[in-house]
Design brief:
mainly alpha, 6 helices, 70% helix, elongated
Length: 167
């Protein structure tokens, strides 16, 4: 790579964009991880931890769209959760593939920047919401499998209250 060019530091708007994008991508990846874990447990409820971990490792290489296709094929979720996953997939794809594409020149014009920030923050919030719904669905599933989920449920409620959990 040629280092003979002058690097221009990011302005405040660009720093904000990078922060919003980073948060949204991280929360999206956390939702993807929740989905992979959920698929693993729902498809392997009676397996040993070792075999389930092997299955999880395979599932984690799938894209969010591929994971959703597995969930549909295996009928793992109720229709409202499946619809929410499908809707979020569209948002995730926009974030990952099209957030800036074709809009580079418009970034500092009018309300575009604020609208873009708002849309990215919306994806971030939706990713967090999807993750939470998947977690509660998985708790319900595990409870139906005769697993005691009271401690997990309590930890999840503490997280929702904004209490950091240290182990």
């Amino acid at each position: 790579m040629n280092d003979n060019f002058k690097k221009i530091p990011a302005n405040d708007s660009e720093v904000n964009l990078y922060c919003f994008l980073g948060e949204a991508l991280l929360k999206t990846q956390m939702a993807e991880q929740a989905l992979s874990h959920s698929i693993t447990l729902k498809m392997n409820p009676k397996e040993t931890k070792e075999r389930a971990d092997k299955f999880l490792k395979q599932n984690q290489c799938y894209t969010f769209g591929q994971a959703i296709k597995i969930a549909i094929r295996e009928k793992l979720y109720n229709s409202s959760l499946q619809d929410a996953l499908n809707d979020f997939l569209q948002q995730r794809n926009w974030l990952v593939h099209k957030v800036i594409c074709g809009n580079e020149e418009d970034f500092n014009k009018g309300n575009f920047k604020e609208e873009l920030f708002h849309k990215i923050k919306s994806v971030s919030n939706n990713a967090e919401s999807i993750q939470r719904v998947i977690q509660y669905d998985l708790i319900d599933f595990c409870s139906s499998q005769e697993k005691n989920m009271s401690e997990t449920l309590e930890l999840l409620k503490l997280q929702e209250q904004g209490i950091r959990i240290r182990k």
